[in-house]
Write a structure and sequence with these properties.
Shape: elongated
Low-confidence stretches: 57-67
Oligomer: single chain
Mean pLDDT: 87
Helix content: 25-40%
Largest sheet: 8 strands, mixed
Strand content: 15-25%
Distance between the termini: 117 Å
C-alpha cells in the first residue's frame, strides 16, 4: 500500500473572488474602521466593559480629560477613482504587521491582543480585495512603523506554494508622540462593481447612517470620524424613564475555559420624539458586541419575537431593548464574521435570548394595556408613557438589575360615571326646539335633561 498526501493549500482566487461576496461595500469599510478603533483601544488602554457604559453627560466627552487633549480622528474619503482611510489612533507595530496583520485568520500561538472589534483576522484583507486592485498602506507607532504597496492582480498570479503567501514590508522609524501615530490605507484601481455603487450616489448616505449607529458608544467620546469631510454624529442611545417607569435590567457572566463573556440586558419604553411619537423604524432589540452595534432594531424571532413573545406588532413600537456582550476574547462573542448578524448556536447567545424574552414581557404587557377595551385604562397608560424622559443608555446601565415596572401614583377616587342611552332623533329635536337651542349636540341635550330632572324632581 502506498500513502500519498493530498494538497490542501489555500487558493488566492477564492479570497479574491468568493471570500468578498458575502459582505457589502459599506460593511467592508466598517471593518477598516474597526481596525482603527482597535488600535485606539490598545494605545489608549481603554477598558471596553468599564468605560463604554460609564455614565457620561450629553455635553461631556473623553476629550475633556487632560490626557485626551483632542479626540483621535478617523478620516474616510472616496470617489470612483480612489478610497482612503487615515487615522490617528496609535498605529500598528511592525511586529504585528510581520506576524499577524496580513494573515487570513490569527495563528494559534499568537500572543498579542486579538483586538476588541477585529476578532477573526480577515476584515482588513477582505475589505481591500472587495474595494480595489492596488493598495498602499503605511502605519507608525511610537516604536516603529512599516510601509507596503501591493498590486493585487500581480500578487495573485503567484499561487503554487506557501511561500507565495507573503507581503513585502518596508520597515520605518516610529514617531515621537502618540497623537501622531496612526495608519493610512489608500486603495486604487477600484473594482467596476464598486465604482458603480459609488456613482449611484447612495453609498455615502448609507455609510453615514451605519457609522453613526454602529459606533454610537465611541463617537465624540473616544474618537471623531469624518466621512468625505463631514463629521459623523453618533445616533443617540436612549430609553424613556421617569419616577413612574423603571427600566428593566438583567446581567450575568458566561464562563468557559477560553474566557468570560459579560452580558448586560436592558429593556423598556423608547423615548418619545419631539412630536410625541414612537417611530416604528427604531423599535426592537439592539445587540452590541464589545460596544459595536451588530444588530439594530430587530423585530424577529432572532431576538425572541414570535418565540416566547408575541409576534411584533405596530402597537409594540414603543419597545426598545439593548443586549450588550463584552469579552476580552472577542472570539467568544456571538457575532458572525461580517458583524452584521448573530450566531444563533452560540451558547451565550442562546442563554441571553431566553433572558431577553423574560425581560421583554412586562414591557409588552404595558404596551398591550395601552390598547384595551376600557378607555380609562388607555388614558392612564398613555399618560404614564408620555411622562417618560429620554435617558442616555450609559445612565440606565448604572441602575441595579431589576425587571421593568410601573409605579402607579395613587390618584383621587373618581366621583363621576358616564351615562349613555339611546333616544329617538325626533324627540331630541323637540327638546332643542323647546329650549330654543337648535345648535346643541345630542350630548348637550342629554346633559341638560339630566340636570333639569335633578333640579326639578330631586332638590337637595
Amino acid at each position: 500500500m502506498t500513502n500519498k498526501n493530498a494538497n490542501a493549500y489555500p487558493k488566492k482566487r477564492f479570497f479574491l473572488e468568493m471570500f468578498t461576496r458575502d459582505i457589502s461595500l459599506e460593511d467592508c469599510i466598517l471593518d477598516l474602521i474597526d481596525n482603527s478603533i482597535d488600535a485606539l483601544i490598545r494605545s489608549r488602554h481603554i477598558d471596553i466593559l468599564s468605560d463604554l457604559l460609564n455614565p457620561v453627560s450629553s455635553d461631556e466627552s473623553v476629550s475633556s480629560n487632560k490626557q485626551w487633549q483632542t479626540l483621535p480622528t478617523i478620516t474616510v474619503s472616496f470617489s470612483d477613482k480612489e478610497f482612503r482611510i487615515t487615522d490617528k489612533c496609535g498605529g500598528i507595530s511592525p511586529e504585528a504587521a510581520q506576524a499577524e496583520v496580513f494573515n487570513f485568520g490569527h495563528s494559534n500561538d499568537f500572543s498579542g491582543s486579538l483586538g476588541q472589534l477585529g476578532a477573526y483576522g480577515i476584515g482588513l484583507k477582505r475589505a481591500i480585495f472587495k474595494i480595489g486592485n492596488h493598495f498602499d498602506m503605511e502605519s507608525t507607532t511610537t516604536t516603529g512603523g512599516f510601509k507596503v504597496s501591493i498590486d493585487v492582480k500581480e500578487w495573485s498570479k503567484k499561487d503554487t506554494k506557501i511561500s507565495d503567501w507573503t507581503i513585502p514590508l518596508e520597515l520605518t522609524k516610529g514617531v515621537k508622540t502618540l497623537t501622531r501615530a496612526g495608519t493610512s490605507i489608500k486603495i486604487r484601481d477600484l473594482r467596476p462593481e464598486v465604482c458603480m455603487r459609488i456613482n449611484d450616489g447612495s453609498v455615502e448616505g448609507i455609510l453615514h447612517t451605519k457609522i453613526a449607529q454602529t459606533y454610537a458608544l465611541f463617537l465624540e467620546r473616544y474618537v471623531r470620524i469624518y466621512l468625505n469631510n463631514q463629521v459623523v454624529q453618533p445616533e443617540t442611545m436612549v430609553l424613556g424613564q421617569s419616577e413612574e417607569i423603571q427600566v428593566g435590567k438583567d446581567q450575568f457572566d458566561e464562563k468557559s475555559p477560553e474566557g468570560v463573556v459579560t452580558v448586560i440586558l436592558i429593556a423598556g419604553l423608547a423615548a418619545r420624539t419631539p412630536k410625541n411619537t414612537w417611530p416604528l423604524s427604531s423599535a426592537g432589540w439592539y445587540v452590541l458586541c464589545n460596544g459595536r452595534v451588530v444588530v439594530a432594531a430587530d423585530k424577529t424571532d432572532l431576538t425572541g419575537w414570535g418565540a416566547g413573545l408575541a409576534n411584533f406588532h405596530y402597537k409594540y413600537r414603543g419597545f426598545k431593548g439593548f443586549a450588550f456582550f463584552f469579552s476580552e476574547n472577542p472570539l467568544l462573542l456571538p457575532w458572525t464574521t461580517t458583524k452584521r448578524g448573530l450566531n444563533r448556536e452560540s451558547p451565550v447567545y442562546q442563554r441571553a435570548r431566553n433572558r431577553m424574552v423574560g425581560l421583554s414581557k412586562p414591557v409588552v404587557t404595558f404596551l398591550n394595556d395601552m390598547y384595551p377595551s376600557e378607555v380609562s385604562e388607555e388614558i392612564a397608560e398613555r399618560e404614564i408613557a408620555e411622562k417618560a424622559v429620554a435617558t442616555n443608555i450609559n445612565r440606565v446601565a448604572a441602575n441595579p438589575s431589576k425587571g421593568f415596572g410601573v409605579v402607579r401614583k395613587k390618584s383621587a377616587p373618581k366621583t363621576t360615571v358616564q351615562i349613555a342611552f339611546q333616544s329617538e332623533k325626533d324627540d331630541v329635536a323637540r327638546i332643542k326646539k323647546c329650549v330654543r337651542e337648535p345648535s346643541w349636540s345630542a350630548a348637550k341635550v342629554g346633559e341638560y335633561t339630566f340636570e333639569h330632572y335633578l333640579r326639578m324632581e330631586c332638590p337637595e
